[in-house]
Every structure is written in C-alpha cells, then in structure tokens.
Amino acid sequence: MFNRFEQFTTAISQIYKSVQKIKTNEVNSYGLKANHVMILFQLKKHEDGLTPSQLRGLCDVDKAAISRAVKELTSQGFIRNADFDGRKYRVPIVLTDEGEQAALHIEEAIKHAVEIGGAGLTDRQRAEFYHSLLLIARNLEGYTEC
Q1: CA 132 – CA 138 distance, rounded (Å)
Q2: DSSP annotation string for 60-94
Q3: What structural domains and CATH numbers belong to the chain?
Q4: Of the candidates 114, 107, 92, 89, the residue with the CA atom closest to the CA atom of residue 40
Q5: What is the pLDDT of residues 81-136, one digit of tens each?
Q6: Helical axes 97-117 vs 2-27, angle rounded to 10°
Q7: CB neighbourhood size of 70 (10 A)
Q8: Which residues pair with 58 in a beta bridge?
Q9: Contact 106, 37 (CB under 8 A)
C-alpha cells in the first residue's frame, strides 16, 4: 500500500512539474505566464467568450487568480470584453487577434505534449488510464470534502 502511495504521488508530482515547465516554455515568447495557458485555451474553445466566473470554474482556480490573470491578459492585449449590450457585469471575455495567435500556439503545444506523453500507449490503455485517473481524482476530492 505504501509503495503504491509513493509511486502515485511521485508520478503525479513529476507530471505536474513537467506540465508547468511546458506551459512556461511555450508561452514565454509571448511574455505570458503558465497560469495564462488554461484561460487562453478555454477562450479558444469558447469563441463566443466566457465570463470570469465561467473561466474560474473551467480553469479550477480561485476568483482572485482569475481576476489578476484577466487584468494581465487584457493589459497585454490578448483578451478583451465582448461587445455585449452595454452591460458592465457578467460580460463575456473573448480573445483578440493576438490572443488568438497565442491560443493557436498553445493548442499546437498541447497536441505535441499529449502525443509525447502518451507515446507507447494503445488507444485502449490510454482510455483506461484516463478513466482510472479521473476516478481517483473524484474519489480523493470526495475524501477531502468529508
């Protein structure tokens, strides 16, 4: 049991560190931070835009982190508020042209990283792995909420 715990926590930690390095390396040329990656990725997936609250849920970060990131990305010209009936609250955020280019770069980097990370796995092994990983994540999340 303790060996499984050690293997699991070590592997998850190594994966997390690698993902953070990949994020940092891929967005560095744009002057962005690793925490901007998921925001740009989600906005690329949702072309009609997302509110900060929706981004917070999709990116699984707290309100303050989203607020800071939105402010930074807006000031750097990667995102803007959508033209939305003159409202100031609950206005969706969309990518600018520059943000679109950065998001395309991020998409390509993600595809490449996923290919490398999954090298040597069959489609069945990959499906079973993700099923197991998501089940473990849900189980542990439930455990921590007790």
Answers
A1: 10
A2: T--HHHHHHHHHHHHHTTSEEE---TT--SS--EE
A3: 2-121 (1.10.10.10)
A4: 107
A5: 987 676 777 899 999 999 999 999 999 999 999 999 999 999 999 999 999 999 99
A6: 140
A7: 19
A8: none
A9: yes
What predicted TM-score, i.e. pTM, was given to this entire model?
0.83
Tell me how far CA of residue 55 lies from CA of 10, 61, 64, 118, 123, in angstroms.
Answer: 29, 8, 12, 27, 30
Pairwise CA distance, residues 9 & 16, whole Å: 10
| Paired residues of 94 in beta bridges | 80
Cβ atoms of 50 and 38 within 8 Å: the answer is no
Strand partners, 50: 93
In angstroms, rounded to a whole number, what is the distance separating the alpha carbons of residues 103 and 135?
A: 29
Q: Which residue matches tokens 């699984």?
A: 60
